[in-house]
Amino acid sequence: SAGGKLADTLVYGDWKGIDWVRQYVIPANPKTADQQEQRGFFTAAIEAWHVDGYTKEDVEAWNLYALAQKIAASGFNMFVKLKLLASVAAKTWGALTDCLIASITSSGCEVTINVPSDLTGILYIGTSKTSMLTQFIGTYLDPGYTFTVDELVADTRYYFYIENTLADEVARTGIYSFKTAAA
Fold first, then answer.
1. For 29-54, b where at least 16 C-beta lie within 10 A, e where not — what string?
2. pTM above the 0.90 mark?
3. Alpha helices, DSSP H only, in 101-161?
4. pLDDT tens sequence across 20-71
5. Are the beta carbons of 119 and 169 closer than 8 angstroms?
6. Domain map of the chain by residue range?
7. What Å distances lie between residue 161 and 141, 148, 152, CA to CA?
């Protein structure tokens, strides 16, 4: 059985009963300004996920968003991706947290969500996780938006997300879901 290394030039081992040998590689980890900046973006995105106040429902919405993308990713992965893209584009990320769906009737509901400032939020809603075309403009009252969603069909499952639409600021939520009451 092979195992070990020879003078920092060759490394030996076995994998599933097969012996192997390869050249020893000293890992490179550049500490350039650009690399440090990228690491800073990752650190900020991961910290935001943990400290911005995302509730259990918010995390479930991000997971549903990831599922709708049809890629092997979690809600955390999708959040970090979008936050990184915002950072690289030098846009401000406004955390949308603590979404509450209330007063569900057969024809509508009221949705509230916390946001750091008025970023012109729009709620997109539809009956599919991949097609949410109907828009509702939010009313901002500190600490967040209120959306009055109406003209819905009774006893139907709806999916929605909220997005900030200012040019130099970006943020969105995962995909939330609710079912209207029967008529």
1. eeeeeeeeeeeebeeebeebbeebeb
2. no
3. none
4. 888 877 777 778 899 899 999 999 999 999 999 999 999 999 999 999 998 9
5. yes
6. 1-30, 33-179
7. 19, 14, 16
Sign of the dihedral defined by the CA atoms of residues 59, 61, 65, 68, in that order: positive
| Lookup: tokens for 135 | 């828009």
Residue 40's identity, in one-letter code, is G
What digits encode the pLDDT tens for the residues 115-163? Answer: 988 778 899 999 999 999 999 999 998 889 999 999 999 999 999 999 9
The domain made up of 33-179 has a fold known as: Immunoglobulin-like (2.60.40)
Q: Give, in degrees to the nearest 5, the angle at Cα 125 between 140 and 146.
A: 20
